[in-house]
Design brief:
The chain is α+β, with helices and mostly antiparallel strands. The protein has 5 helices and 15 strands. A hairpin with a 2-residue loop joins β4 and β5. The two termini are 23 Å apart. It binds 2-amino-4-trifluoromethylsulfanyl-butyric acid (MF3) and cobalt (II) ion (2 copies).
Length: 270
């Protein structure tokens, strides 16, 4: 991707903070990430088609495994820092990193996040979706709707050479707060593409106009975890992975992977 030198010079004159070059992907890398993102979305499509009440979260893992292989990809989560399954399934009070389990059955009234990362031709795609089952109640409906809206809102404000990284947290945090919800601060989005987790860290709470300016060629995720009650959390002591809300109230998450382009943005996986 060729940067607009005039705009870069103007930003430098304003003493704006610019991302290091390693945050910017080449056209070849972007192409690889675009394909990996598309495959990752197809895996989530397969989950969306089959997921239903009565299934275990391990059944979701099987769908991800089967579909990823059929598409020629590799599930990135499997074995990542010792993670035992191909996908994260985070139900109700689980904020993220839920481990699929044959004894965890999806029931009417549940909300569930399925977070999928796929390696395709050496590149990584990452996205997650919320699924709801039957009548989940008014509060849960609002939580899930606000979480989706928060991601869309933040993405709609991505402007190359103009937006700052912290603007994402400003829009997401603001919307959540207006609904009386909280946002997890310590776990967030990230650069992605050549690895599952790259710099920069994308915080879903923030002020307008702080941090680096977004430039074409940056690829990162936006994946807020929004909580009904407290944003404090606890980690499952037995498995070391599953992150719960400290008050065991609901948490929802949606993850989209975006590329900053010369004129705006492109969603690579959702
Ligand atoms: N897909 C998750 C993310 O959005 C990462 C999961 S790591 C795992 O960053 F090991 F828990 F799978
Ligand atoms: Co993810
Ligand atoms: Co991610």
């Amino acid at each position: 991707m060729i940067l607009n030198q005039e705009k870069i010079d103007a930003l430098k004159a304003q003493k704006a903070s610019l991302p290091p070059l390693r945050f910017l992907k080449s056209d070849k890398q972007i192409d690889g990430c675009r394909k990996a993102g598309a495959v990752n979305s197809l895996v989530l499509d397969a989950v969306a088609k089959e997921i239903q009440v009565g299934m275990s979260t391990e059944d979701i893992d099987r769908i991800v495994m089967r579909e990823t292989k059929a598409l020629g990809g590799i599930p990135a989560c499997l074995g990542f820092e010792g993670f035992p399954k191909a996908v994260c399934t985070s139900r109700n009070a689980v904020i993220c990193h839920g481990i699929p389990d044959k004894n965890e059955i999806i029931r009417e009234g549940d909300i569930l996040n399925v977070d999928c990362t796929t390696i395709y031709d050496g590149y990584f795609g990452d996205a997650s979706r919320m699924f709801t089952f039957g009548n989940i109640g008014k509060k849960a409906e609002e939580l899930v709707a606000v979480t989706k809206e928060a991601v869309d809102l933040a993405i709609s404000h991505l402007v190359p050479y103009e937006s700052h990284l912290s603007d994402i947290g400003y829009y997401i945090g603001g919307l959540a707060k207006r609904h009386g919800f909280s946002v997890v601060r310590e776990i967030g989005g990230h650069g992605v593409g050549l690895e599952m987790h790259e710099d920069p860290y994308v915080c879903h709470l923030g002020f307008l106009g702080r941090g680096i300016v977004l430039l074409p060629g940056m690829i990162f995720t936006i994946e807020p975890m929004i909580c009904e009650g407290t944003n404090k959390f606890t980690v499952d002591q037995k498995n070391g992975w599953t992150i719960y809300t400290a008050d065991r109230k609901l948490s929802a998450q949606v993850e989209h992977e975006v590329l900053i382009t010369e004129t705006g943005y492109e969603i690579l996986s959702k």
